[in-house]
Write a structure and sequence with these properties.
Layout: H1 11-33, H2 36-54, H3 57-63, H4 84-102, H5 111-132, H6 146-155, H7 162-172, H8 175-191, H9 198-211, H10 214-218, H11 223-237, H12 243-275, H13 291-303, H14 309-333, H15 351-362, E1 379-384, E2 396-399, E3 408-413, H16 421-431, H17 436-450, H18 462-484, H19 491-517, H20 523-531, H21 538-550, H22 554-576, H23 582-591, H24 597-606, E4 622-626
Helix pairs in contact: 4-5, 5-13, 6-11, 8-12, 9-12, 11-12, 14-19, 15-16, 16-18, 18-19, 18-22, 19-21, 19-22, 20-21, 22-24
Length: 655
């Protein structure tokens, strides 16, 4: 068939074809004029991006809605692999990637490509250090491990096309193989004396028994049954599949859940039971041979901070003392801050009203989404976590949308924790505006508008993302005070106490993280430290100790990330002088990430800050509120080792 032969009447199709051909021709011609290093670098970025996504279908599905938009025409659905061969291949691929990058001349790249080059090289070098200590990580952490995250990620797996359904079922069919790889990993880990403590193994075994409840699966009331059917209903309504095909898919999903996934969980629990007792350490990382080295790697990876431990301790201690003095002073001046009467109700009750309020309050200090959006503004939906998922999910979280489909945004509220009033308001600031949702959407819109290389979006910098959410959450207490100033001025002191209490708690836990994993503090010593400030219940202090032991550097991701933003802000004030303003600083931060803080410090000196301030109106996106009974309610996901996105909090005691 001659593809250049058009029917005579199809002049519109012919014009489109010729225009597309011309665009492709001139794009190719423009590429020829780029320098060799630029061509090689962009080619490397594209290959790396595609390789990262196609190697993990869950990751790809949560990162891009339409893989073909990024040159991914075909792929084999697969879960993450923990095989020995995969470890060897990953290490070799990292070495080759670093060698390739170093062979390029950074000074021959454009300013934007040069920045991406520095971020990528630094990121890969840190990843390589982690590979050298590969068996120190725990893929089955009780709070964020594969066993608890996989079902939730599957429950949130969006069905846009028929292919998505078949991919999903293919992933279910690989659960046993994936878990066998994890079991082999754990056996190798145990042979090196690096297996998890027995108290952690007991928690994971219990999760393996409870998450895939056989009775719920048989009655088809398990959330992996119900959410699957709900997503199929949407495809039937859109006429992408027929009712008969829906029934066939439901039958196959039931078969795979009961004959593949359930046995895989049961076998994993049995293997863990056999491995119990092989762990040589029930305390912090520093008690392992290279534990301190691994912990320093985690701090670098999780926070993006370049500081040494001594400096981090000093920074945290100074902040803790400052906030303790402020809290003590407030309580001395206000011995009964809540007063004799009940605390006045907060200005707003519904999440949708709180989100709209937050957008209005932030408008003068943050760049508007309209300033970077071409023609599409995001829609935010607030959903309640389904009751059968509440036990496994955090109090609230934002589900990050794919790079190429950022219009639909979802914030989940877990009513098991029943957040209300100012607590819910500040939680929504953390997850929504000006937090995760706003940061994600603004950055992606800016990237699309300025054609930033998409590889920037898959580099994971927890401190950059969670530090920002912490920064704006604490800022939202000031918004809450302003809202209640006339109606209930007495709440100003109460809200300030809540804010200081929050900072003290997170700063203290961050210091305990270092004490446990770097300095070797025991559970008894942690109990004594916490008892000194009034947390003396042995069960409580034991739970805190175990959580921090199981999730090293996690609290630092939030609070050290926040302190690094304050430090960066102080540098901006010093560099920019009278030209400094909050709007400009926030614009800089949003447009130069995700990144580590060393790179942001360098970028700060080059940012064209003068004349950027604009009180452009902050366009309010559509916001809706969906209750648990709403049709099509999806289940939530939380942060995971499988997905680099910010997504969600894994801390049960933390927003």
């Amino acid at each position: 068939m001659n593809i250049f032969k058009f029917p005579q009447k199809n002049t519109k199709c012919r014009a489109i074809f010729l225009a597309s051909s011309a665009i492709l021709f001139f794009s190719a011609l423009a590429l020829l004029y780029l320098g060799k290093d630029t061509r090689n670098f962009r080619h490397f970025c594209n290959d790396f991006f595609v390789s990262e996504l196609t190697g993990n279908t869950l990751n790809m599905h949560y990162t891009v809605a339409h893989p073909e938009n990024y040159g991914i025409r075909s792929y084999t659905p697969q879960l993450p692999s923990y095989s020995r061969e995969k470890v060897k291949n990953s290490g070799r691929e990292l070495e080759e990637a670093i060698h390739t990058l170093r062979s390029l001349k950074e000074n021959r790249l454009s300013r934007e490509d040069g920045y991406t080059y520095r971020l990528l090289l630094s990121y890969l070098e840190n990843e390589r250090l982690g590979m050298d200590l590969y068996y120190y990580s725990n893929p089955l952490s009780p709070s964020s491990g594969m066993q608890s995250q996989l079902p939730i990620l599957l429950a949130e797996y969006t069905f846009r096309t028929r292919q998505d359904v078949t991919d999903y079922l293919a992933l279910l069919d690989q659960t046993d193989t994936c878990f066998e790889g994890i079991t082999d990993y754990l056996k190798d880990q145990a042979s090196q004396g690096l297996f998890m403590p027995d108290y952690s193994a007991d928690k994971v075994i219990q999760q393996c028994d409870e998450i895939m409840d056989p009775s719920l699966l048989q009655s088809q009331t398990h959330f992996l049954n119900t959410t699957f059917e709900e997503r199929l209903d949407t495809l039937v309504e859109q006429r992408m599949i027929t009712p008969a095909e829906k029934d066939s898919y439901i039958a196959e999903n039931f078969r795979l859940l009961t004959t593949v996934m359930l046995p895989a969980y049961q076998k994993l629990g049995d293997e863990l039971l056999l491995l119990k007792g092989s762990g040589k350490n029930e305390e912090g990382l520093c008690h392992y041979p290279q534990g301190q080295e691994y912990y320093l790697h985690l701090i670098r990876s999780n926070t993006g901070s370049p500081r040494k431990i001594k400096e981090i301790k000093y920074l945290l201690t100074q902040d803790l003392n400052r906030n303790l003095r402020a809290l003590t002073s407030l309580l001395q001046d206000n011995p009964n801050p809540a007063g004799a009467d009940p605390v006045p109700p907060f200005a707003y009750r519904l999440p949708e009203d709180m989100l709209k309020s937050l957008q209005r309050m932030m408008a003068s200090s943050f760049p508007s989404l309209a300033s970077v959006a071409e023609d599409t503004m995001p829609v935010c939906t607030v959903k309640s976590v389904s009751s059968n998922l509440q036990e496994y999910c955090s109090p609230a979280f934002y589900l990050t949308p794919p790079l190429d489909d950022i219009r639909e945004n979802v914030i989940y509220i877990n009513h098991r924790n029943n957040p209300t009033g100012v607590e819910l308001y500040t939680t929504l600031a953390h997850e929504g505006y000006p937090g995760h949702l706003y940061q994600t959407v603004y950055s992606q819109l800016f990237f699309q508008k300025t054609k930033v290389n998409p590889i920037r979006s898959i580099l994971s910098y927890g401190g950059y993302v969670e530090g920002w959410a912490m920064y704006v959450e604490l800022r939202s207490y000031e918004y809450a005070k302003a809202l209640m100033k006339e109606k209930a001025p007495e709440t100003e002191t109460l809200y300030e106490i809540c804010k200081l209490d929050r900072q003290i708690q997170l700063c203290l836990y961050s210091l305990l993280d270092i004490a446990i994993h770097y300095d070797g503090a025991s559970c008894r010593q942690v109990h004594e430290m916490l008892s000194a400030i009034g947390i003396s219940n042995p069960d409580t202090t034991r739970a805190i100790y175990e959580y921090i032991t199981e999730e090293p550097a996690n609290y630092l991701k939030y609070y050290l990330g926040y302190l690094e933003i304050l430090s960066l802000k102080a540098q901006a004030k010093k560099l920019w002088g009278k030209a400094y303003n909050e709007y400009c600083f926030h614009k800089f931060y949003l447009e130069n990430g995700p990144a580590d803080f060393s790179s942001l410090q360098i970028q700060l000196r080059q940012f064209p800050h003068e004349g950027l301030y604009s009180k452009a109106s902050f366009s309010l996106p559509a916001i809706s509120l969906i209750h648990p009974s709403a049709k099509g309610l999806s289940s939530p996901t939380s942060s995971s080792i499988l997905i680099k996105k910010s997504e969600a909090e894994s801390l049960q005691s933390f927003k």
